[in-house]
Amino acid sequence: MPSDLTPMSSVDRAWLRMDTPQNPMMICGVWTLEQPISMKRLRKTLEKRFLCFDRFRQRVVDNGDRAYWQYDPLFDLDNHLHQIALPGKADKAELQKLVSDMNSTSLNFRQPLWQMHYIDNYQGGAALLIRIHHCIADGISLVRVMLSLTDKTPEPKLSRVASKHPSKPRQRSAIQKLLHRAVDNVQVATDQARLFIQSVREEPNYPLKLATTAGDVAFDLVKLGLAPFEPKTGLKEPLSGRKQVAWADPLDLAEVKACAKALGGTINDALLCTVTGALQRHFAAHKEAIPDCGIRVAVPFNLRPLDQPIETLGNKFGLVLVTLPVEVMDPLMCFQQVQENMNRLKRSYQAQVTYSLLDLFGRGPDVLERRALDLLSNKASAVLTNVPGPKEALYLAGSKLTQPMFWVPQSGTIGIGMSILSYAGTVQFGITVDKAIHADPNAVMDYFRESFEALRHAALAGREDALTREAS
């Protein structure tokens, strides 16, 4: 093996092998900016804050049995950062069309797997379109990386950027690697034994708890495998590979918080209930029978501590299957059902189980992963992400970031991706839909707002009824 190759982790390799013409494994984002920005300043920002991560200078070398990272000897930022412009008086529809086209186009595997397009002439300002392959890192990590490009004020002090290539780690010989791995394994085993003995001393019933946890994990694995396939609906169709992207006008985060508080739940409960209501309206508009068992969405669950800085990239998350009770039409009853479903999942180990499965699939043959992927993707109708963002407005290269949106890829036979992101007192909601699925993404955006308003009015009415009862 050449000395400049770094083995790819099994989990990252699993996401690499999921890439298909119908579902490119890209995390796609679009940021709208209040004013145009200087390309020179944007380049300096990327060189200082983005390219400090080795993965963005490395390409993938895949020999079938193993995959590796290798520094691209011909790396040039111009191959990844492009400047384009929208025609005429470009509106939101024009930008959505462009994002849809780019979201349907695979990245160049001969180069590091990311691209950015700076888009001039958008509503008096500009936009930045970002595409990064999922094998580099998970969506939650990449959102944090992208936000690190921004500042809290328009005029930060950027230190001078070093023009030299970042130094590569010194390569060890095969014997050194073997000895190093052996020392690591002994150290890990010693640490684990020490922690186990310490835990038993502090808590005599710790071995029983450990055995119970192992049983719970095994039970969740069996439940995941035995979960029935999704009901046949218009949301599950053979995919074309052409994506349609849309995003809604943001909700007021304070209103979402007030709604959740009035219902005795969390913001996440309220937003998942809102998504459920939007899908109910979609089924009604298409005169389609609503499944009486609900539908499931795959929700990424972060396994990386959010209070720690991201020093290395990679995928560190699991997936949980969340049932959306689309058959429950009353908003308050729907909210209660969503809340019960989420509380049940919080007590489970499903995220850890799916992460371990990805690790296992990444180590095994490609045919095993394909079959397992088909099995899991048949148990969800969509992927839904919900990421907490910054509380204050941010600036990119001096221009205010007015609306950030992103979408994670859909794997296997799943053709719908929905994303929720809080930002500066607002809640952003977006969707990407395969063109073969008969769902109008802009109509779903309207349904999302209608659904939230219905839930908010029901919550306020319920609170007023409760106050009236208390007064009497």
Automatic annotation (TrEMBL):
Pathway in which the depicted protein is active: Lipid metabolism; Glycerolipid metabolism; triacylglycerol biosynthesis
Keyword field contains Lipid biosynthesis: yes
Keywords: Acyltransferase, Glycerol metabolism, Lipid biosynthesis, Lipid metabolism, Transferase
EC category name: transferase
Transmembrane segments: none
Known EC number: 2.3.1.20
Catalytic activity: an acyl-CoA + a 1,2-diacyl-sn-glycerol = a triacyl-sn-glycerol + CoA
Gene3D superfamilies: Chloramphenicol acetyltransferase-like domain
Highest taxon listed in the record's lineage: Bacteria
Domain O-acyltransferase WSD1-like N-terminal: 8-270
Coiled-coil regions, chain positions: none
GO CC term, one of those recorded: plasma membrane
Any Gene Ontology biological process: triglyceride biosynthetic process
SUPFAM superfamilies the UniProt entry points to: CoA-dependent acyltransferases
Single GO term (MF): diacylglycerol O-acyltransferase activity
Domain O-acyltransferase WSD1 C-terminal: from-to ranges: 314-455
PANTHER family: O-ACYLTRANSFERASE (WSD1-LIKE) FAMILY PROTEIN, WAX ESTER SYNTHASE_DIACYLGLYCEROL ACYLTRANSFERASE 4-RELATED
Protein family membership: Belongs to the long-chain O-acyltransferase family.
Official protein name in the record: diacylglycerol O-acyltransferase
Organism of this sequence: Marinobacter santoriniensis NKSG1
Classification of source organism: Bacteria, Pseudomonadati, Pseudomonadota, Gammaproteobacteria, Pseudomonadales
